[in-house]
What we know:
Elements: H1 2-38, H2 40-51, E1 52-57, E2 64-65, E3 71-76, E4 78-83, H3 85-88, H4 92-103, H5 107-114, E5 118-120, E6 127-129, E7 133-140, H6 141-152, H7 168-177, E8 179-185, E9 188-190, H8 198-201, E10 203-211, E11 214-223, H9 224-228, H10 230-234, E12 238-244, E13 250-259, E14 266-269, H11 273-290, E15 294-300, E16 307-313, H12 332-335, H13 345-354, E17 363-365, E18 370-373, E19 376-379, E20 386-388, H14 389-395, H15 398-408, H16 410-419, H17 448-451, H18 462-473, E21 477-479, E22 484-488, E23 494-497, E24 502-505, H19 509-520, E25 540-550, E26 554-568, E27 575-582, H20 590-593, H21 595-609, H22 616-629, H23 637-644
Amino acid sequence: MGEGVLGTLQIRRALVLVAGLLLVYVGLGYRLVELQVWEHPELEQEARRNREREFLRSPRRGDIVDARGTLLATSIPARTVCADPLLIGPYSAHVARALAPLLGMSELELQRRLLPRVRRDPTTGRWITNRYVVLARQVPLERWERIEAVMRDLDVGRDPSAPGMAGRRFVQQLRRYAVFTDPYEDPVRWYPNGSLAAHVLGYTRVWDLEVDGRPTRERRGADGIELALDEELAGVRGWRATETDGRRREVVRLRNQDVAPRDGWKVVLTLDAVVQDILEKALEEARERYRPKNITGLVIRPQTGAILAWAVLPGFDPNRLGESDPEARRNVIITDQFEPGSTFKVVVVGGALNDGLVTLDDVIDCEKGRFLYAGRILHDHHAYDRLTVRGIVTKSSNIGAAKLGLRMGEARLYEYIRAFGFGSLTGVPLPGEVDGTVRPVDRWEKLSIVQIPMGHGLAVTRLQMAMAMAAVANGGVLMQPKLVERLEDARGGVVAAYAPVAVRRVLREEAARLLVEALKTVVSKEGTAPAAAVPGYSVAGKTGTAQKAEPGVGYVPGKYVSSFIGFLPADRPEVLIAITLDEPQRGYYGGQVAAPVFREVAERLMQYLGVPPERPEEAEGALAATAWRGRGTGRSAVERVRQVN
Length: 645
C-alpha cells in the first residue's frame, strides 16, 4: 500500500516537472516567436542602426582666386571631434585636463560633456547612454593628430593590472576609442590674405539642417561672392552607407551605396591681388590722415568693365568674423547712396556736347557766382563771370552746369541720367546693391532742372558714378561691371567664361572725346584737382564735394562726401580710379582729400602694370624726386611697389 502511494507521488512529481518544463519551453517558444516574428522588423531596424551608418558626403567648397591665380579663399580639411562617455567612465577629469587646451575649452565644461548620461529613447522606450558627444567642430587635421597623440599617452594614474574600470583592457579601450572623429570632413573656410578684398569675397556660415531625414551641417555663403555664387562654389553632395563594429570602425563599405560628391567650382575673379593691395594701403594712409567715416576705392578697366580692385575701409577679417563690427562689413560701394556733387557734371556736359547744344569754346554767363532761379539763389565757390564750357568743367561751376541743364530741358536731361545708368542696378554680381534715387520728371520740383546738373536732388551709388565716368573713358559706351572672369572645375577645365557686356552707347565717340579734353584740364594748375596730376601721364577726371543731407534735417553743415574719379592715360585709358571719402575731418574738398589718394594709387599702378609714360623725362624726374624723398625710409617708390609684388 505504501509502495503504491509512493509510486503515485513520484508520478505526480514527474508530471509536475514535465508540465513545468513544457511551460518553460512554451514560454521560450512564445518569446522566440515574439522576437523572430512579431518584433522582428523593429529589432532588425535597431540592429541595422547599430551596425550600419549612412551619412552624407560633403563636397569640397571651391576656391576663389584672382586673375593671376593668387589664392583668395580656400577650404582647409578639418574634422568634428567626438567622444564616447561610456568608454571614458570615471576618467573624465583626466581626459578633460589633457584635451582642454587643444580644444580651446575650459576643463570644467569639457568634463561636464564627458560625463555618461542615461535617457529614455522616445521611439523605443528603452534606456540608452550618450555614446556620441560632439566636443569640437572644424578641428584642423594637424590638431587632431596632436589630440590622438595625447590620448595614446594619456596617464590615468591607476594600476593597469587592477580589475574592472581600472584594468588594463579598459584603459586601452579608453586611449584608443574613447575620443574619435566623424567619418566626414568639416572643413574650415580660410582667407589667406586676411582682410584683403573682404567686401568682395564675403564670408560663409555653417548651418545645421536635415536632408532626407538625416541631420547634417552645411557651409553656405553669407555675403559677397561667397553668397552670390554659392551654388557654384558649394558643389553637390554625395552619400555613403557602411557597416561598423562596436567601436565605430568601418569594416564594410557598401559599394553600391557609395556616391562621390562633386566638388565646387573654382571662381576666378577679375581682381588683381597686387592692385588690391596697392589700393588698400593708399586708402589706409588716407584714412589715418583725413579720419573719414569710411573711405572707398575702385580700379576699373574702362574698355571691359573689369574690376581690378574694390576696397572699403574700415574693413574686416573674414577669418575672425566674430571680432568685426557689423557696420564695417557693409559694402558701402553698392549699399549706400549719396548725392554725388560735381562728379555728376559729366552727365549734363556730356549730354549737351552730344546733342550739339554747345561746343567746348562756347561762353556761358556764370553771373559772378550768384544766379537767381525760381526764387532761389544758386552759388559758385568763386565769383566766376563768364566761362567757356571747357572752363565750367575746369572750375566745376555749379551755375554753368545749371545753365546747361536749362538748355537741355527736363525730359532730355532725364534721358541722359537714365542712359548713364543712374536709377538702375549695375548688374555687379554682389548682394545688397541698391539702384539709387532718380525721380521721374513728373515728380521734379521747379528747382530740379538746375540742382540735378550740379549733383543734387538725386542719389547714386559709388559704383554707378564710377561706371558712368568709365563710359566717358570708353568712348561713350557704358559697360556692365565685370567681377568674375570664369569658373573652373577641379582639373582646371573652364566650366563657364564671362565676356565683357556693353550696356549701351551713351555718347557719340566725338562727344566723349571732347568731354575727355575738358576733363584733362581739371588736373591742371587752373583746375580743381592739380593734386591728382601724375607726372609723365595725362589724366582726365572730375572732383566732387557734396554736402550730406539727412532725412528731416536737410543739408548738415560740416558733413561732406568728397570724391575724385579719373582715368589715365587720358586718351588711351588703362585704368579708371575712383576715390570717395565719407565725412573727412581734415579738409573736405574732393581736390584736397581725394585727389592726392588718386595720384598715389595711379603712380604705383602705372609702374606695376608697365604702362609707358607719355612724357618719359617728366616721369623720370618725378621718380628721382620720389626716390630722393624716400631716402629717409631707405625705400624708393619703385622699391615699395616691388615689395608689394
